[in-house]
Write a structure and sequence with these properties.
Helix content is 61%, strand content 0%. It is a multi-pass membrane protein.
Amino acid sequence: MAYVEKNTSSETRNGAGMSQDLEYNQRPHIAHAAPVHRQFANPAPLGLFSFASTTLILSFFNVQARHITEPNVVVGMALGVGGLCQLLAGMWEFACGNTFGATAFTSYGGFWLSFGAIFIPGSGILAAFTGPTAGQLHNALGIYLMAWFIFTAIMFAGTLRSSFVLSGLFFFLTITFMLLMIGEFTENVTVTKTGGGFGILTAAFAFYAAAAGIYTPESGYFVLPVIDLPKRH
């Protein structure tokens, strides 16, 4: 926030105003330090690295890398990194005046927190789908992913005049959510694995975008191009 010092011109002062100035100048004064203006650091790399790393881990589990079929190990990352760190990045994007970044990071931070909660035994979410309701779990997860597919598609439309890297990230994330949603609805493991593959590609775009925010002319010897898209004239 800029510091503004107000001055009153001599032409606009009346006699009363001048006498008030003289009275003020005769008072003892306490020296005050000049206001310090601090510039916010860029919170985007934190949010992008958090998103990229958590997405990469879950996507490897979705493609069943190293024959892993149980994704519960991602819960810690989902809560601490994908959730908390992205939530913090989103709050600082609000402070920086970046509506898109604030909405994206805060929302996906909430996504990872909610996703992690599904697999926490104490939440009772998975326990509710046992016995007669066991067959409802895949459809319930499909609806859950459908909401995030819709949200991500809307966010993707908001990147079309930003950069190729950011737009590509949201494009592949939209495809990822769509395939994971279809995989849950159809209970098709192949579709889910394909969604995991697109998730790995999404994570690669996110890692690149985060690195582009870290490698600035002030901090390194090279920068990473993000390829700006044409802006509206």
